[in-house]
Amino acid sequence: MDLKKAFNTNRETWNKKVAVHAAGEFYNMQAFKEGKTTLNVFELEALVEVKGKSLLHLQCHFGQDTLSWSRMGAKCTGVDISDEAIKLAQNLNKELELDANFVCCNVLDTSSFVSEKFDIVFTSYGTIGWLPDLRPWAKMISERLKPGGVFYMVEFHPIAWMFDYTVSPPEMKYGYQQKEAIYEEYEGTYGDTGSKMISKEYGWNHGLGEVISSLTEAGLQIEYLREHDASPYDIFPGLVKNKAGLYELTNGLYPLVFEVLATKR
């Protein structure tokens, strides 16, 4: 597997997504600029006290979540592979008169670009599937955390990624712990399914065992692993909104989201 080719393909696709996402309803840029947070119930309940703390946001896209944490008083640094996303994040930071820092790099190379150690490392919703191996990712997280620091992730459940969503109805096609890369090419993006842009993407599936083991092997202590039947985002086919405003499967057969909170020993 030519990982350089895969990462460059993904970077090119994410560069194209920036303008589409920034103009679309999914990211609701106007409401964000007017003060609406883009953070969801899971992360807000997990990371209650961020004021005055340093926070590293991995795979931040164009920084709306990063800047939402910044509005809550955290001193934030966001990292993303897309140079177009980082440019927009920097412009938003300046426009909103916030003090976040943004760095363009492959998340696996973060320690080569960011030397600071942080109170909190955060990542969320559709991030680890872009990585072929979680061990270097977890090692980097440990390197960037202060002793006693907290790592928190909230992510779509690996069972959800076993399906091919380019066909209707979705077909269970990929392995839960599949090591081979998954390549997909399709029209549109989750942020605008009606867009004519062509998404070309390489991804990898990671089971919960791999997630937890990579973090513990890197020296982190797992405080909890939680699985949830509902997602803040309506990105999978056939979901319905529940009373809490989250989206869930009508049959409830498997979780859609999981959370991990860990601390640096």
Write the layout of secondary structure elements.
Blueprint (H helix, E strand, L loop, with lengths): L2 H21 L5 H5 L7 H6 L7 E5 L5 H8 L3 E6 L2 H13 L5 E4 L5 H4 L4 E7 L9 H11 E12 L6 E2 L6 E2 L9 E6 L10 E6 L4 H10 L2 E9 L1 E2 L7 E3 L5 E3 L7 E8 L1
Parallel strand pairs: 1-2, 1-4, 2-3, 4-5
Antiparallel strand pairs: 5-14, 6-7, 8-9, 10-14, 11-13, 12-13
Helix pairs in contact: 1-5, 7-8
Q: Could you characterize the architecture of this molecule?
A:
Helix 1 (3-23) runs parallel beside helix 5 (83-95). Helix content is 29%, strand content 28%. The chain has 265 residues and is α/β, with parallel strands linked by helices. It has one domain (3-156, 206-264): Rossmann fold. Strand 6 (163-164) and strand 7 form a beta hairpin. The chain is built from eight helices and 14 strands.
Q: What would the keywords be for this entry?
A:
8 helices, 3-stranded antiparallel β-sheet, Rossmann fold, 265 residues, 29% helix, 7-stranded mixed β-sheet, alpha/beta
* Silhouette: globular
CATH superfamily: Vaccinia Virus protein VP39
Figure out the total of helices.
Answer: 8
Question: How can the largest sheet be summarized?
Answer: 7 strands, mixed
- What is the mean pLDDT? 97
CATH names the topology as Rossmann fold
Give the total of domains.
1
Helix share of residues? 25-40%
Order of helices and strands: HHHEHEHEHEHEEEEEHEEEEE
What is the CATH architecture descriptor? 3-Layer(aba) Sandwich
Structural class: alpha/beta
The parts where pLDDT drops under 50 for at least 5 residues are none
The share of residues in extended strands comes to: 25-35%
How far is the first residue's CA from the last residue's CA? 35 Å
